[in-house]
Amino acid sequence: MAQATYSVTGMTCGHCANAVTEEVGRLSGVRTVEVDVAAGTVTVTSEAPLARAEIRDAVTEAGYTLGDDPV
Question: How many structural domains compose the chain?
Fold first, then answer.
């Protein structure tokens, strides 16, 4: 298992968290997605490490922006 935490900008509410969780959760191999709106982070647990570009694309699809640096 692999786990990584990313900063996400633009999230302000539970709807935001649900949108990010849904999009990132669709990625192949993802086991869990934990969003902390207050901290502006998303923690992804997956079967194997995921490419940052995959996470970025999913977060963008949800309507938010992935931070430049991993948390």
Answer: 1
